[in-house]
Amino acid sequence: MSSQGHSESNSHGDSLHETSKDRFELLSAYLDGEVTATERRQVEEWLANDPTVQQLHARLLKLRQAFRSIPAPAPSQPVEATIDQVFANIERRPSLSVVRGGNTRRFALPMGIAAMFVGAISVFSLNRLYSPSAPQPVAVQQVEPVETGGLMVALDQPVVAMPQADSSEPGVPANKPFERDDRDAQ
Amino acid sequence: MSQSLPVSWSSVEVAVPQTPVQAEKLSNYDLVLQCQVGHRPEKAVFAELMRRYQSHVDKVLYHLAPDWQDRADLAQEVWIRVYRNIPRLNEPVKFRGWLSRIATNLFYDELRKRKRNSSPLSLDAPLSLEDGELDWEIAAETPGPDEDLSTREFYDQLNDAIADLPEVFRTTIVLREIEGMAYEEIAEITGVSLGTVKSRIARARSRLQAQLQQYLDGK
């Protein structure tokens, strides 16, 4: 951890520094649109009259611009390698929902019944394989790929109750609003 | 893996020609929509999505965890989660933010694991608990160097300055400036109050603007 010098010692006293801290924090929140109407008026008044605040504001705007235009780091591996690894992984970990498949409705009724039979067997075997204390989808990794023969389609529900936090998988957000998705158009 | 295109029931009788989607010609938005067709994205379509957004995943993980050597593994896990969950993304227009959030959540999961496993003497440990390590740097007026430094050098300096921030300040400013999150969302993810988020962002900016002022004051 590098320790930075106290820049305020150049030209600011302690009490002035306190004021500067408050102003800086308010200015920073103002930049993010995270201020009340009163605070906004206050910052705008400083911006109109205080050269120090004006200078900081200009710097912070440039800093923000720099953050937004910062180049992506050099990739640690080519994206095609990542694509191959991801698909190898997905195919190695037959998540139950992959097994569900998208073609359920193409099967005739007898096939469906047969699928339910196979499904029931796999429920039994999967339940034995799952550790109750670790119902993470990742645990599927250890499951031997079950021979589905395209018949697993009747498995419409996960065998193990999935944690229901924000979404069906830990770490996957519910569809929350984000700012600046306009940056999507790149 | 089946390569057939799912066809809506209403159009089955019309014998729609099953021309494969040319993923690379789709807009970002249409590409996300195409990934939502069926229960699971088609490989070609999803691979194109990865090509377009991998650099964003790299960027988020790089700034959140500059000193981790296994970010490629983390990125892989991000995409696996995306693959499994993209059909349930309700607002495809917000894909980029959703992707950032998945990467961020994965980073925090991993960070918690590493902290549990690290020794109590680890230098990292106290940083997440205290906000006191980062001094304020306000309006320093030391003159910058005369030489006109290139943009590349500036970004190198910025990357280094971000990486040098104590962890809680770095993650907070990255969530704000690189991921574009609102304070409330940052507070929720990092488990601190709005006031703390506000203070951490301000202090991170205070340090960065002081370190980079010769670049920021130019022109």
Automatic annotation (TrEMBL), chain A:
Compositionally biased residues, Basic and acidic residues: 177-186
Region Disordered: start-end pairs: 160-186
Pfam families registered for this protein in UniProt: zf-HC2
Domain Putative zinc-finger: 25-45
Domain of life: Bacteria
Protein name: Fis family transcriptional regulator
Species classification: Bacteria, Bacillati, Cyanobacteriota, Cyanophyceae, Leptolyngbyales
UniProtKB/TrEMBL annotation, chain B:
MF (Gene Ontology): DNA binding; sigma factor activity
Transmembrane segments: none
Keywords of the record: DNA-binding, Sigma factor, Transcription, Transcription regulation
GO process annotations (BP): DNA-templated transcription initiation
Domain RNA polymerase sigma factor 70 region 4 type as annotated: residue spans: 156-208
Origin: domain of life: Bacteria
Lipid biosynthesis keyword on record: no
Record protein name field: Sigma-70 family RNA polymerase sigma factor
Organism of provenance: Myxacorys almedinensis A
Family matches, as InterPro entries: RNA_pol_sigma-70-like (IPR039425), RNA_pol_sigma-70_dom (IPR014284), RNA_pol_sigma70_r2 (IPR007627), RNA_pol_sigma70_r4_t2 (IPR013249), RNA_pol_sigma_r2 (IPR013325), RNA_pol_sigma_r3/r4-like (IPR013324), WH-like_DNA-bd_sf (IPR036388)
SUPFAM superfamilies from the UniProt entry: Sigma2 domain of RNA polymerase sigma factors, Sigma3 and sigma4 domains of RNA polymerase sigma factors
All copies of domain RNA polymerase sigma-70 region, residue ranges: 49-116
Family from the record: Belongs to the sigma-70 factor family. ECF subfamily.
